[in-house]
Amino acid sequence: MPSKPNGKPARNARSGGASSKRNAVVVGSSRGRNPVRIGPDDTDDEDLKGLDKAVALVTNGSPVSKAKSGGTSAKPVDYSGIRCLLNPVWCYYGFIIAVAGLTLFGLLMVFSSSAVDMIAKSRPAWYELLSQTAFAVAGIVVAFVLSSIPVKTFRKLAMIAMIAGVLLQLATKIPGIGSEAGGNVGWVSFGPVRFQPAEILKWVLSIWMPAALLAARSKRTVRRKPLVAFNAPPWLEKVGRIVEIFVPRPYWVPICGFVLAFTAVILGHDLGTAMIVVLIGAVVLLVGGFPLRMFVLLGGVGAAGILLMFVTGSSNRMNRIMATYGECSSEDLTGVCYQSIHGTYALASGGLTGVGLGNSREKWNYLPAAHNDFIFAVIGEELGFLGACAVILGFVVMGWCMIAIAVRHQDAYARMVIMAFTIWLVGQALVNIAVVVGILPVMGLPMPFISSGGTALIMCLAAAGTVVSMARSQTEIKAAVSKS
């Protein structure tokens, strides 16, 4: 029989050595019960407060176990019944199936939505399909390579990747290298090779920012020297104190890197991609235990700055916003409202089951970007409400599986990376759908895995391969994969 506790909340005793603190976080005890321990983490969870501590505990991921005579043996988790949806092994294979299914379906819909446009350009009807298939094969190879890389290697090389990603994005502003399309200066050309660095930057930010944030968290209890100790002028010390009101000094590196990535993207006038970058950074900060008060304050200031500088400062963006949430004039029907109206026509024509695969009317040069940003409208027209719901279900399964794997993962870095990829892939898909149905203004974001686009497809598959690598280091998945 376990000994009766003294009734006081159990805590990690500092006198007990650093190993006990690292090995488990003691949540507490109750009368007649042993303390509940939640397994290893590389953070000092006892220093977190409020929502930060709740997030750290919820995303800790290791099986909850009861300490027996000082031990930390885990009780097997019951995944019977409805709990099977939380089984990380099922979610691991479910994620792979969802990615494969959406990619194959995307190739089919790219062919269906682009055939008419290719013929109009005196090209074979399957020209875009062959091009997208080549990109898919390249993306699968990249995903396979990344899936075999250990988690610690991603963490070590994250800084180098971040520097390279930002430099590539800034190269879009170099004359002769950067090129423009659709009003966005977001492409880089090296001879016959042309790609979009912002897609690479999203992947880079997703693996770098968690590593930088964990490094900052490990330094937050270290006593910091004032800036004057580094021969900095007094005015710089005052500026540093003002900045610390918004961002504690240990977090300067991840926040500055995040702001740099956002700035590099927004310089190319790509507000849609910049929004995804913001979502990635926000999720990493929230899940990573960034102080909630600072998070809200920094988010409010950032949102106000973006609204004033990049939305109201552009007449084109304001026109698109007004067209979405206001009424379109007769002039707008052939201008700023044209694409969104024909996207609505396509969805309305589809009905419940659609007009049939390949029978879309709007793709006959009525709907701009029918095989790219507005491919969901063609899906709704040809496959109807049921087909559109099937696509949404695919992304729901993908997102659920990634979250379930992250919650059950023992490694803090892997958890944060998986959550960053979740908000990128699933969040961007939801934004794309919201644009097509008229909830959000047109902003030029493709649908992951489905829309036509080489760089986007390759990097989405690269993200999937990275998630597979992170998932394979999870205890239950690692055991299941080793048996197969």
TrEMBL record:
It holds the Pfam family FTSW_RODA_SPOVE. GO terms for molecular function: lipid-linked peptidoglycan transporter activity; peptidoglycan glycosyltransferase activity. The chain crosses the membrane at residues 90-113, 125-146, 158-178, 198-216, 251-268, 274-290, 295-313, 383-405, 417-443, 449-468. Keywords: Cell cycle, Cell division, Cell shape, Glycosyltransferase, Membrane, Peptidoglycan synthesis, Transferase, Transmembrane, Transmembrane helix. It is a multi-pass membrane protein. InterPro entries: Cell_cycle_FtsW-rel_CS, FtsW/RodA. It is found in: Membrane. It comes from the Bacteria. Its main location: membrane. One of its GO terms (cellular component) is plasma membrane. Its EC number is 2.4.99.28. Belongs to the SEDS family. FtsW subfamily. This is Probable peptidoglycan glycosyltransferase FtsW. It comes from Bifidobacterium vansinderenii.
